[in-house]
Design brief:
This protein has about 625 residues and is mostly helical. About 65% of the residues lie in helices and about 0% in strands. The two termini are about 55 Å apart. About 45% of the residues are buried. This is MFS general substrate transporter.
Length: about 625
């Protein structure tokens, strides 16, 4: 699947100083701080008063998927862009969320339901012309070359979903969600038409290219869908979970088709299904051109800036008031105050009142600190980040996990047919997997959020390595019960890994370089995933169809890389926390010394130093003939 499908948050905070800089010499650390300050100097005066630059600690940012454009700082500070939520009715915004979730459910990741579609492709004789006469005479279920081409049919789609995220992300950041939805609908329609023609015309081999367009269209539909979470800022996390769950559920589209195919004894042909599927891109286009937002809703940082401005009494006073009579000035300022307070009330309804926002901020800060890695490489350049073990080990682990997962999805039926020695038993495992894959992703989503928020990053990585190793061991046991357990572990591990990796990337590398750093991981992993065809050939030719050696090798290599990553991150977290404790202790000591010096100086000062002489009064607010008036 695509790594981009489990990005855990769309906005957050970056630490101003990378934690790794704590270990620099004082001179080098000062130089690093100056370089960081220079990068945002031109924008600091514009946004610092709005709270986006929290002095000495963090910068508020919105995530960017653009892997080519140099990120502006801070990107969350544009108050003018986007639609203010209260200008759109609650019913319409709810309808928009519902429509986007449905679009993701039916269009974002259907290619990952390949395990359910593959038996139909085999029954329909797709690529059967590649079989040898001997294989046809032996009446094998699927022959060697045929199986390789079918698996390549899936691996290319998986690679497309990953690599295309770079292109789609760049288009989303530059042209907005409307263009992405329309292009995605066109790709889904093209893929459906090509697939339908391929099943009707024997001479036309359009299966692979058709699936390519389905994968591409899915990314175009899914990526902009996260932004609908801003329609209801207080429930943004829930909406992100719904969108992510809808993507996982989209793998069931081919499952439902397989059930229809089997219930009609094959009368519901694939070419008919793909023509019927054209309803999905058509519905997305209609929704986009009618009631879906034409531009993004304002982000939480933008709303925070509006709240701050709405709370400023000074905004009720205009310079033009000086030319008006006092009564007219009073009336106009009163009207401005009423409008300002009304806006503030609406904003409080959207994001919560001041107390609720404060609690949410404290909760978020607690989660960041609990991770232990937040800010490790923030505000470093993408190149500097990619040259560290933080990036290299994560990339290697991701490559191994993606190859393992897609190898399992593409060949689960053949693997258990060999291990269990029975096509019927392998079919039972395959059918259980077809149901468990979408359900596992949907049901695990809320638990993954709690896990990532409350368990440290080294702890999450350790859980991943334990489960990955268990999958490797249980996947080598040739029994039916082991097959079921392996499937359960797999469908939980899949969303856990991808969610944890995006969470790791935002906390370690930050939002400023997310598009470049995470995009590099996505692209590299996707390209390596094309090696699946070679792995399939190795399994069938060298090991005569036995998947255990390949699974054991991949599991062992994953364990080695994963253990190295866990150990490295754990050691770095220990060192960074120790250094932070030392700096905190030094700060407290300096504060105590400063307090003592101030007390000594106060004792030496004359008692009347700085006092106002008796009989003298401040005349700042007393002017003859004038009365001060407070406008509220």
């Amino acid at each position: 699947m695509s790594l981009i499908q489990h990005v855990t948050q769309q906005e957050g905070t970056d630490r101003e100083e990378a934690l790794v800089d704590l270990f620099l010499s004082p001179i080098d650390r000062l130089e690093s701080r100056e370089q960081t300050s220079e990068r945002r100097l031109s924008l600091q005066s514009q946004y610092s008063n709005a709270g986006f630059l929290q002095a000495g600690k963090s910068v508020r940012r919105v995530i960017s998927y653009d892997a080519l454009h140099k990120p502006q700082e801070p990107v969350a500070g544009d108050i003018d862009g986007g639609i203010t939520q209260y200008n759109v009715s609650t019913f319409k915004r709810a309808a928009q969320v519902f429509a986007v979730v449905l679009a993701c459910w039916f269009g974002s990741g259907i290619v990952f339901g390949f395990a359910a579609l593959k038996p139909i492709l085999i029954k329909e004789g797709v690529y059967k012309d590649l079989c040898t006469q001997q294989e046809l005479d032996e009446k094998v279920e699927v022959c060697y070359e045929q199986d390789l081409r079918l698996n390549f049919f899936f691996s290319l789609a998986s690679t497309t979903a990953n690599v295309s995220a770079l292109v789609v992300g760049t288009m989303l950041d530059r042209y907005g969600p409307r263009v992405c939805y329309l292009v995605g609908s066109a790709c889904l329609a093209a893929g459906s038409i090509i697939m339908s023609l391929a099943f009707q015309i024997d001479e036309f081999d359009g299966y692979t290219i058709g699936n390519f367009f389905l994968a591409l269209g899915g990314t175009f539909v899914f990526l902009p869908s996260f932004q609908i979470a801003n329609a209801f800022p207080k429930y943004g996390g829930t909406i992100v979970a719904l969108v992510t769950g809808a993507f996982d559920a989209s793998a069931a589209v081919f499952l439902f088709y397989r059930l229809g195919y089997e219930s009609t004894d094959g009368a519901f042909k694939p070419h008919i299904f793909f023509l019927v599927y054209l309803i999905v891109p058509a519905a997305i286009v209609v929704a986009q051109l009618t009631f879906l937002p034409t531009e993004n809703y304002k982000t939480a940082p933008q709303l925070e800036m509006k709240i701050q401005r709405a709370g400023e009494n000074e905004r009720d006073v205009h310079t033009s008031d000086e030319d008006l009579p006092d009564d007219e000035v009073w009336r106009r300022r009163k009207n401005r105050s009423a409008r300002r307070r009304k806006r503030l009330s609406k904003l409080d309804e959207l994001v919560g009142d001041e107390v609720a926002r404060k609690k949410q901020e404290e909760k978020h800060e607690h989660h960041l600190e609990a991770s232990g890695v937040w800010g490790a490489l923030h505000n470093k350049t993408a190149i500097e980040q990619m040259l560290t073990p933080w990036f290299i080990l994560l990339t290697l682990l991701t490559v191994m996990q993606m190859v393992r997962m897609n190898y399992f999805i593409a060949s689960i039926r053949e693997q258990y047919a060999y291990m269990l020695g029975s096509i019927d038993l392998a079919t039972r495992v395959n059918e259980f997997f077809d149901w468990a894959l979408p359900l596992g992703g949907v049901l695990s989503t809320p638990f993954l959020g709690m896990l990532l928020d409350n368990v440290s990053t080294p702890g999450v990585l350790l859980i991943i390595i334990v489960i990955a190793t268990a999958i490797g061991i249980i996947g080598s046991v040739a029994t039916l019960w082991a097959g079921y357990i392996n499937v359960i572990l797999f469908v939980f591990m899949r969303p856990l890994y991808y969610s944890a990796m995006s969470d790791y990337a935002t906390k370690v590398f930050g939002f400023a370089t997310f598009g470049r750093v995470y995009g590099t991981i996505i692209c590299f992993s996707g390209l390596i995933n094309l090696s699946q065809t070679g792995i399939d050939a190795l399994t069938k030719r060298t090991f005569n169809g036995n998947p255990v050696p390949i699974n054991a090798f991949l599991a062992g290599f994953t364990f080695i890389i994963g253990t190295a990553l866990v150990v490295y991150v754990t050691v770095q977290v220990y060192r960074m926390r120790k250094k932070l404790d030392e700096e905190d202790a030094m700060t407290v000591t300096n504060t105590d010394v400063g307090s003592i010096m101030e007390s000594l100086l106060e004792e030496d000062e004359p008692r009347d130093y700085g006092s106002i002489a008796p009989g003298r009064q401040s005349r700042e607010y007393e002017q003859p003939g004038r009365q001060s008036r407070e406008y509220v």
